[in-house]
Every structure is written in C-alpha cells, then in structure tokens.
Specification:
Layout lengths: L2 H9 L28 E4 L13 E3 L2 E4 L2 E2 L11 E6 L3 E6 L4 E10 L2 E4 L3 E8 L3 E8 L6 E7 L9 H7 L3 E8 L15 E8 L4 E8 L4 E10 L7 E4 L15 E5 L6 E5 L7 E7 L1
C-alpha cells in the first residue's frame, strides 16, 4: 500500500465498489469455520511450473496480460515454490528467492480452485497438517502433483478480535492527515484508482489490492503482527520490501487501533514522511 495512492482515494471521493466477493463465512460475521485449504502451505517438492505470458504489458512491478493479470515479478523464470497461501478469494505463491506471485482464485466446488494466471488446483487430499493437490497449468503444460504441509500461524486465533480481523475483507474507505505535512508537488488527483482492499492472514501476510478503472489491478504484500498480548493493535512493515519480526521501531513499522465491535479499523502510519490515518470498514 503506497500512502499517496490511498490519499488519492479520499481526494477524488470515489464510491465503494465491492470487488471482493464474500464466500460463505466471509460476509463480515466473525467465523472460525474457514475452508480447510485457507491456510499457508509449505512446499518442499523440487518441481514447480511458471506459465508463460503472451503479449504482456508492464504495469509497475507486475506484468499484466489484457484484463487477465499475472500479478507477478517481471522475470521470466523464478525458482521453485516454497509455499502457497490461500486467503479470502486471493492467493500468494512464495518462491524460494523471496519473491511472490499474487492473484485471485475461485472455488468452483469443494475440491477445485481456479487460480488466475496460474491454473487449476484439484485437491486430492487435505487434513489439518497436509495438503496434496494437482496443479494443471493454465498454459496446458503437464499437470504437477504437489504435497504441502501446514505452516504455523503467528498467534492462536481464538478470540473475537482475532477472528474478526482475519475472516473478512477490509475496504479502505478514506484517508486523512493526522499531522501537518507539506503536500506541494504531490500528484494527488489520479482518478484511475477505484477502490483499495486489505486482507490480513493468521500467518502474518498483509495483502493490499488496488482496483483501476481500466480493468487492471495490482497487489502489494507485507507482513504484520500484534503489538500486544491483548491483540488490540497491530503493526506492519514499511512498503519497501521489508518484513518485520517485532513492533519496536517506529521508523520501520506502523501502528493501528482496533476496538470492539471490530467492524472498523483505524490505521495510523507513524512514519514522519507520510503521517496518514486510514479508515477501514469490514466488508
């Protein structure tokens, strides 16, 4: 999430458009009954496949093909998968060199997930600890059988606050400045952004999705963690690729307030350059 992008949303007064469709148990009601596959799964298999892109166009740091988006780094080849995480309607593939590929998926039935720009996942077996599936690449390459093991969450998500945070999509409704700042020279009027959404996972993944008027999207990933044992606030890393392992440094993390009934989230960026406050609502 780039701070300037979100300030644009407030200034141009964009109305909310629900681009994240909510699946059962993700309609804003806190629920502990997540789909079995909605976890982060560590992959140790030596094989992986990276579908080719035809006629790509460069949109920032990701390659996009027409209205179907690749949401991945620009390199033509990357190392093997190290993990795959399924969030609410979104996936993140982690590669062994630390890069990621992000996109949307659709569950067509209990055993079939269609990942845009990747292919079709057919679940062969799944338990709390292991996940076996066959990936049929979108480019028609030979299907790949993969076995993965469940990663450990960053916290025991049992409280109302925990479940309310991770079991929904958050829409960034508006942004304000909570400290004086000189905005002269900033390009604040970009009407191409129509909406921005955020997801938090129990594995420390913070995913932001930006929607544009020309049909393309982009994603940004980060890591987050609780600021205290009561789980009433959280912090996340800078948007320069840094992940976090603690919330100690105000210069590299951001803080939030998060209070009952957990339908609103206020995020204060304490960075001195961009002192923004974001108002998020549960979708």
């Amino acid at each position: 999430m780039k701070a300037i992008k979100h300030l644009m949303l407030l200034i141009i007064g964009l109305s909310s458009v629900a681009f994240f469709s909510c699946k059962k148990n993700h309609n804003g009601t806190a629920s502990s009954s997540l789909p079995k596959y909605e976890k982060r799964w560590n992959i140790s298999d030596s094989l992986s496949h990276r579908p080719a892109i035809s006629t790509p166009t460069n949109k920032g740091t990701f390659l996009h093909t027409g209205t179907k988006l690749a949401h991945r780094p620009e390199q033509d080849s990357l190392p093997n998968y190290s993990a795959i995480e399924f969030l609410i309607n979104s996936y993140v593939i982690f590669f062994q060199d630390g890069t990621v590929q992000v996109g949307q998926y659709t569950a067509t039935n209990d055993t079939t997930l269609v990942l845009d720009s990747v292919g079709t996942v057919r679940i062969t077996s799944i338990s709390a600890a292991t996940f076996s599936f066959t990936l049929t690449p979108i480019d028609g390459a030979t299907p790949i059988s993969i076995t993965a093991t469940a990663a450990g969450p960053i916290a025991n998500f049992t409280s109302t606050a925990d479940i309310a945070l991770i079991s929904t999509t958050w829409k960034i409704d508006s942004t304000t400045l909570y400290l004086p700042v000189d905005t002269s020279g900033w390009d604040l009027n970009d009407p191409t952004i129509t909406a921005t959404y955020a997801l938090f996972s129990p594995y420390g993944t913070y995913l932001v999705r930006n929607i544009y008027t020309d049909g393309h999207e982009d994603y940004e990933t980060n890591t987050w963690m609780w600021t205290n044992t009561d789980h009433t606030g959280l912090c996340y890393g800078n948007w320069d690729g840094q992940n976090i392992s603690s919330c100690d440094s105000l210069g590299s993390v951001k803080f939030t307030s998060y209070v009952a009934p957990y339908t609103k989230l206020i995020m204060d960026e304490t960075d001195s350059t961009y002192p923004f406050r974001y108002y998020l609502s549960k979708q």
